[in-house]
Amino acid sequence: MEWGRLFLDRRFAEREAKDRPHRSPFQIDQDRIVFSRPFRRLQKKTQVHPLPSNAHIRNRLVHTLEVASVGRSLAYTVGARLRDVLARIGRTPDELGYLVQATCLAHDIGNPPFGHAGEAVIAEWMARFLDAHRDLGLDADLAHFDGNAQGFRILTRADGYRQRGGMRLTMATLAAFLKYPWDAADPRAARGGTPGVKFGHFATEAAAFAEVREAIGLDGANPRHPAVWLMEAADDIVYSLADLEDAVELDMVPFDTYRELVSAIPDSVNSLDAEETPPQKIAYLRAKAAGKLIEASADAFLANLDAILEGRVPPGSSLIDMFGAQHARPGEALAEIRRFNRRTIYFHPRKVEFEIAAADVIGKALDVFVPACLAFAQAGGLGGMRHRDRQVLSLMQDYQPREEFSVSDNLRCALDFVAGMTDDYASYLAARLRGLDPAR
Q1: For residues 405 and 381, what is the distance between their CA atoms, to the nearest angstrom?
Q2: Which of 46, 70, 68, 69 is nearest to 58 (CA)?
Q3: DSSP 345-378
Q4: How far is Cα of residue 285 from the mean position of the Cα atoms in its chain?
Q5: In this predicted model, what pLDDT tens digit does every residue of 120-157 receive, in sequence order?
Q6: Residue 365 main-chain phi, psi, to 5 deg
Q7: What tens digit of pLDDT does each residue of 301-353 get?
Q8: Which of 157, 357, 377, 438 is deepest in the core (most CB within 10 A)?
Q9: What's the Cα-to-Cα distance from 197 to each of 145, 189, 220, 225, 358, rounded to whole Å?
Q10: What is the CATH topology of the domain spanning 226-345?
Q11: 3-state SS class at 81
Q12: What is the overall mean pLDDT for the chain?
């Protein structure tokens, strides 16, 4: 991969880059993402703990902003050490920071209600639907759902200039968004023997993916844009520390446990005792730990830069996995935090109860909207549809199906609408669709 092409600032669905001398094209990308409706809806989507009543607990929007902050710092740290390389292509460390910050702002924009639990519900429901409708010749990847692929669809098609380039971001930002640059059928998409778990685009966006990959020159067995590695590391750092912090706030984990786990990351915590309260101590430890992990991630990126540019790093690896010997201690401390979170937090009864309920909530929405979109496709438009199905489509607003779409495209419209729901709206609508009148 070539540095010059990796920063291509021509916008998707536009023929050439426009000259805006007072704004970086990647800052414009940030603005377009931040002012979009899918971004705003992240404020009511689960990060880890669904529907929290405590305002200190992170939702998906707060998480995204924290990742963008760490990602910008990490990218500038790397860019400063690559200043001469960037200067040769007319770029600066700031621009690498802007690019990574843009893709961090977008990295979770495709997540459905209730997070990963919602992804699983949609995939399982659609797999059953495809099995019952084998005669329709539907896209096979409708049986899979990944927030990353949904995000690419939002950015390139479903929102902004709908069907006309989506948000029309730069090619560089779209490429840097592609954490898993392959489709659901690719063996690299499998996890734990289950196919189609982690992938970057649906069949409906295959042409958009090919256009971005060709324009940027993504290549190799793991053809990730280098900025993806920085975005992913920022996400890993933030969620590992923040999920543990939120668990302390919810009294799932004692502060002493947090202190023991997190204080093992930085070189020293000599000033910790100067902080008076647990929230102040947590803020101190978080900042010290994040700073050390940014340093370690930058070193890992630069140490593996040739392999990254050649697409030779094995799929499934991350910068966190590539910490060198000089960062073995913080790497192991972070790994222990992630193991602790999996054991203690991600299967906590409060979280699990909501995720079990998510199957019922999202399943009810799919029961209503997917058949209505299929009825539209089979009728060739609104004219031949039942009154009830037309009523259902009226609820979908901008995401309604269209006559010129294929059947698979029209079913994707239903998934756009359902996956775009916030946690509370999905819960509210599921009750309403059952004839109940919940308090909003």
Answers
A1: 10
A2: 46
A3: ITT-HHHHHHHHHHHHHHHHHHHHHHHHHHHHHH
A4: 26
A5: 999 999 999 999 999 999 999 999 999 999 999 999 99
A6: -65, -40
A7: 999 999 999 999 999 999 999 998 999 999 999 999 999 999 999 888 877 88
A8: 157
A9: 7, 6, 21, 21, 19
A10: putative deoxyguanosinetriphosphate triphosphohydrolase fold (1.10.3410)
A11: helix
A12: 94
Residue extents of the structural domains in the chain: 3-112+144-216, 226-345
Tens digit of each residue's pLDDT (9 = 90 or more) over 356-373:
888 899 999 999 999 999
Q: Which two tokens stand for residue 413?
A: 């419209």
Q: How far is CA 26 from CA 23, 70, 153, 439, in A?
A: 8, 17, 19, 42
Which pair of tokens denotes residue 12?
A: 């998707």
Q: Which amino acid, residue 412?
A: R
Annotation: CATH topology of 3-112+144-216: Hypothetical protein af1432 (1.10.3210)
- Is the CB of residue 214 less than 8 Å from the CB of residue 206? no
Query: Under a CB-based contact definition with an 8 Å cutoff, are residues 422 and 113 in contact?
Result: yes
3-state helix, strand, coil in the chain (%, to 5): 65, 0, 35
Residues with Cβ within 8 Å of 92's Cβ and at least 6 positions away in sequence, in order, are 79, 83, 86
Q: Where are the beta strands (DSSP E) in 111-179?
A: none
> Could you tell me how far CA 426 lies from the centroid of its own chain?
19
CA distances from 388 to 304, 365, 394 (A): 57, 15, 10
Residue for token pair 């927030």: 147
Amino acid occupying residue 379: A
Cβ-Cβ contacts under 8 Å for 323 (sequence gap 6 or more) = 296, 297, 299, 300, 330, 331
User: DSSP string of 270-331?
Assistant: TTGGG--SHHHHHHHHHHHHHHHHHHHHHHHHHHTHHHHHTT-SPTT--GGGG--GGGHHHH
Sign of the CA dihedral with 283 first, then 289, 292, and 297 last? negative
Q: Which residue reads 């990730």 in tokens? A: 224
